[in-house]
Fold this sequence. Notes:
By secondary structure, the chain is α+β, with helices and mostly antiparallel strands. Helix content is about 35%, strand content about 20%.
Amino acid sequence: MLKVNKYLxxxxxxxxxxxFVVMSITVATFGSLAFCSISDExxxxxxxxxxxxxxxxxxxxxxxxxxxxxxxxxxxxxxxxFGHTSIEKTxxxxxxxxxxxxxxxxxxxxxxxxxxxxxxxxxxNDKVRKYDKDFFVHSEEYxxxxxxxxxxxxGSGFPHFAANSLWxxxxxxxxxxxxxxxxxxxxxxxxxxxxxxxxxxxxxxxxLEKATGKKYEDLVEEYLFNKMNIKNASAIRIGYENSRWGHxxxxxxxxxxxxxxxxxxxxVGNFIKEIFTFKPMQFVNNYSxxxxxxxxxxxIGFFHVYPATSGISFSGNEFAKWxxxxxxxxxxxxxxxxxxxxxxxxxxxxxxxxxxxxxxEFFPLDRLPREELHYGLGTFVAKYADNGKNAHNxxxxxxxxxxxxxxxxxxxxEDIGVxxxxxxxxxxxxxxxxxMCNNFLDLCFDxxxxxxxxxxxxxxxxxxxxxxxxxxxxxxxxxxxANLSEYEGTFTSDIYGDIKIVQKDNELILSTGKMSTKLAxxxxxxxxFPQRDMQLSFLDIDEYIAFYPDNNKKFNTCLIxxxxxxxxxxxxxx
Length: 574
């Protein structure tokens, strides 16, 4: 009978165990280094190529100024400015020039909310009603159920850009909020499918302020920017940061808040100190395409109606720090910006984006397969692939409205981050920021060649058409209009309230009380007006108003195409 050598078995088991431990330590120590298949030298080479592409591309696309940011591991590889702050070309862009980052602000807001949760100030699963007892959207049952997290993940169940036309139409925050009494959810979409929102992120900012008793801009400074040594950035209206008089107006606007928080005399001292220590920051001018040229966008504070949605401005240097923090999974230098668990929640899929159309140029199908496209908390979570092959995990966010666009993408697998900010457009004008980031990723990943500058040019050439009842607008035969007096009156809707149509100097004037425009006859009972007259998010297109006669041939109903909440019609009030 075969004897068992217990000592030999014990010795072999110890050898196996030790080998396993050594292998585990080796993987833990060197795994992250082996994980990256792209060398630093390759990244440097791709950086040089994308600099050349952007230098030519921004001139071809008539973009006044932009900045390219590239980050690798824990180092900022490149912050490269191009062009000038304005079309007059008097002031070159520097790495300290501030750009509005528009909806990339949503990413900052998500990190802020998570940092507040880490600090015990709130929980993302808290009901919105806990902090805002009067909050109401859609129904009482839904309003009670809605959590802070639901506001941050675009999983509210509402159609894309719900109430956007009120926000962009310069309606009050109160009226915009009240509109949600009438705007309906899409059945079955709540907490399941993606529906991009701007106003809901504005609600997030309001909730964070109510939960902490502090202003959004102060929270951003305290919990994010100060910890990251971000100095050349702004979370308040641009006009308040680039001139001393503007800053005085800002300090005056918040004096009551400061006096309640600090005490009257301390607030007075703080006010005086701010006036004398204030140093203006250099901002870009913002532009939009208009009649084959560029038109400058006035500073009207549009970004800051809902600062949590679109209120942040970054210089290239500070944008690089933000991307670096994401690449380091919520850490910066020796500081923890958000906990490991919070970062995981931010960057994990929450809602499905399979409902995005295959033709949506913002999510090009040859790079972003729909089955791998999700939204987390203030962050897009996706696979970036070459026509379905060689996929890489990426985190990204875009921003684009009212004369400025921004985009960043981080590839954790390869420890690469890239970002672009520029002072043209809104996404209806250009995807230049996103497409240049895509171009850089393509170079790094050796993806099939694609002319991203040409792809962006094609975006501008597309136009939007409106369908009206009876196709009056597109009829080949012009139909005479009625007497102008027959269109005059006050019309109303539950969502938008009253609008007025009046006659002046043989022309019709449409007014919401906040914005107004002259109407130009198009055909029959259809009139046009420039979109820029009635919406703050500038587009170089015409919008339309169509009047519909009743059985008595009286115009008791009209439809205005820039007001898009459902099939909204205005009915005569007087």
